[in-house]
Amino acid sequence: MSEIEIVLRLNAMGDILLTVPTLRAIAAQGVDVHLVIHSRWAQLAGFLPANIHFYGGTGNLIKLAGQLKKLHARAVFDLQGKLSTIALRSMLNAPITRVYQKRNISEQLQAIRGKYPLRFFDQRPVWQKYGDVCGVNIDNPDATLNLNQAYLNECRKILHELSLEEKKFILLHPDASKPGKSIPAPLVAALQKNMPHPTALIGTSDSELPTDMHSIDLRNRFSLYHLPGILHLAAAVISSDSGPMHLARAVKTPIAALFFQTCPSLGFAPIPAKNVLVLSEPLVCKPCSLHGQNFNCPEGHFACRDVDIAKTVEKISHFIAGFL
Questions:
Q1: What's the chain's average pLDDT?
Q2: Is the Cα torsion angle 145, 237, 169, 253 positive or negative in sign?
Q3: Which of 33, 90, 212, 252 has CB atoms 3.0–4.6 Å from 26's, for a disulfide?
Q4: What's residue 91's pLDDT?
Q5: Would you kindly state where each structural domain of the chain is located, as residue ranges?
């Protein structure tokens, strides 16, 4: 009977996807790996390379802990470090318990006080830190999700209904959870006019599109469950620093990832691959926030969002052309 290890990473989509190389590395050692995520991500559970358990809030914490205790896991790895996972791991009391530390206290205080630019001592990518906490070395990170043919055929039917041809369209995801991460509207307009294939917008925003926008509007047209497959069947994806950015990487679709207020130095860039392009202006004031939450520029110019549109479009076009 194989040993069992439990990984706790409840939120967010991108952070969960960044655990995939670690989950695969643990499983490669013959260990039965179990992952606990928040129930809001349940539609992605079947694609993750682990046994999945759901956290539905503090109301089901004791019940969840009881279910996990029956596994008699030899190790619990807390990659979240929040009150919910602190409580959960203490109830499990596994022989081996390790916790991911995002930042030291002084760095945390720097972020809370709004000091910038944020310069952290440990600038390794998050996926690598996760592996270290879980005791696995990851030389060649395998970040891929499990997509079977029956599922992909479902997604192909959706494309057919939307009059889209497989690998003949490019997805644009301009929105983000925070204002400083979203792709500026002028750049979105230039991208959708200058790509080698028709573009389609994805996301959950319900804002009105400009009248001169030529992209197909796929926002809110399909579920999170079908998003990995739709991304996989696209020719390429252009995305803000967001969950769909990591999801595109996880389904092996060429991804151009744009960082504005945030910065890859914080460790949340897509896992490296030949089909990943990361664009981020190297400004001395950047990043000025952890998650792109600043509505106003502390320097008064927002240079991180005032990118050279023509050069950016050219870089992305050249990158995507290499995969067509």
A1: 94
A2: negative
A3: 33
A4: 95
A5: 4-133, 149-321
Query: Fold identical between 4-133 and 149-321?
Result: yes
SS3 assignment, position 259:
strand
Domain 4-133 classification at class level? alpha beta
Q: Percent of the chain having pLDDT more than 90? A: 81
- Please give the torsion angle defined by the CA atoms of residues 209, 213, 214 and 218, in that order, rounded to the nearest 10 degrees: -20
DSSP state of 72: -
Per-residue pLDDT tens over the stretch 269-312:
999 999 999 999 999 999 998 889 999 899 998 899 999 999 99
Examine residue 186 and say whether the peptide bond preceding it is cis (omega within 30 degrees of 0). no
Higher pLDDT, 71 or 104: 71
CATH numeric code, 149-321: 3.40.50.2000
This prediction has a pTM of 0.94
Cα–Cα distance measured from residue 35 to residue 55, given in angstroms and rounded to the nearest whole number: 10
